[in-house]
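During the no-cost extension, the postdoctoral fellow (Dr. R.K.) reprocessed legacy sequence entries with the updated structure-token encoder. One reprocessed record is reproduced below for audit purposes.
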Amino acid sequence: MYVVELSLRLSPMPIAVERKELEAAQALFAEVRQAIESGHPKVFDLSCEKDEHKQVSLLSSEILAVQTYEKSAGGGGGKRPGFSLES
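Re-encoded structure tokens follow.
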């Protein structure tokens, strides 16, 4: 599974949807990135491939960042997704 995570303006919690294939995650990442760059608000209707009943609609002008990462099967002890400074 691959996770596409969106950080929203004035929201402490990101929105995350899962894709089964890397290509699908990369395509969604590119679509969101293009919408952010265009500057024209667009409504995204997203659903999670793991749980298809999980749906969300959001406005592209409220997206601050998008990232994609592979969801590990282990669930613990691994590196946290995203960007961070490690000492």
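Residues 2-70 form one domain. The mean pLDDT is 84. The remaining legacy entries will be reprocessed before the final report is submitted.
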